[in-house]
Amino acid sequence: LIRRYPWRVSLDTLIGMFSESLLGAILLLIIGQVLSLSLRHAGWMPSETITMAVPTRVATAVGFLGAGIYEEVLFRLLLLPATFLALRALLIPRRSAAVTAVLMTSLIFSLAHYVTPAGGETLLSLTAFTHAAQQVATTPEAWFGFGFRVLAGIVFAVTFLLRGFGITVGCHALYDLLVGVLMTPDA
Asked: What is the pTM of this model?
C-alpha cells in the first residue's frame, strides 16, 4: 500500500500456501502418532480425551479455525518476537535468543491449554499458569498432551520463523480441523 504495489491474489500462491500448510498439519499428525507409539511401546500411554459441547461439525470447524488464528497471533506473532527481543536486550547472542524464545513460547503455548481460571484470576495471570503447571506435573494423564503440544509449539514457531505467519496459521488450523473434525467419530 505504501509503495502502491498492486494487491493481487494468485491462485497458484494460494494453492501453494494451502499445500504447504497441509504438509505441516500432516507432519504434526505423524509426530503425534510417533510419540503415542513410543509411549505405548514403553508400556505407558495415558489417555487424554477432550469432550466438547459443540452441537455441529460446522460450529466445531469454525471454533478450530478461530483457535488456530488466535493462538498463532498470541504465541507466534506477539510473544515469540517479544521474547526474542527481551533476550537480545539481555545481550544473549542472536542464535541462543532465537532457540530460547522458541522453547519458552512453546512451553507457554502448551501450558496455556491447561489454564483454568479460579477465584477471580484471569487466564493470563501468573497464578493461573502456576496452577496449570502444578496440574500437569501431578497428573500423568496430561503428560502426553503437554509433551505433544510443546512439540507442536516448536513446529509452529519454526514454521513461523522460516515460512511466515500465513503458513503457520494454515498449518495450525488445518491440523485442528483434521484432528477435531475429520478424524473424530460422529457423536
From this structure: 0.84
CA distance 171 to 17: 9
Per-residue pLDDT tens digits for 73-119: 999 999 999 999 999 999 999 999 999 999 999 999 999 989 886 65
Task: In whole angstroms, give the CA distance from residue 65 to residue 97.
Answer: 30
Alpha helices in the chain (DSSP H): 11-41, 57-72, 80-89, 94-112, 126-138, 140-163, 165-177
d(CA 123, CA 52): 19
Give the Cα separation of 72 and 168 in Å (integer). Answer: 7
Cell of 161: 520463523
Domain boundaries, the chain: 11-48+69-182
CA distance 128 to 49: 22
User: The dihedral of CA 26, 32, 35, 39: what is its sign?
Assistant: negative
At 150, list the grid cell: 510443546
Question: What DSSP designation does 74 have?
Answer: I
The three cell numbers locating residue 5: 504495489
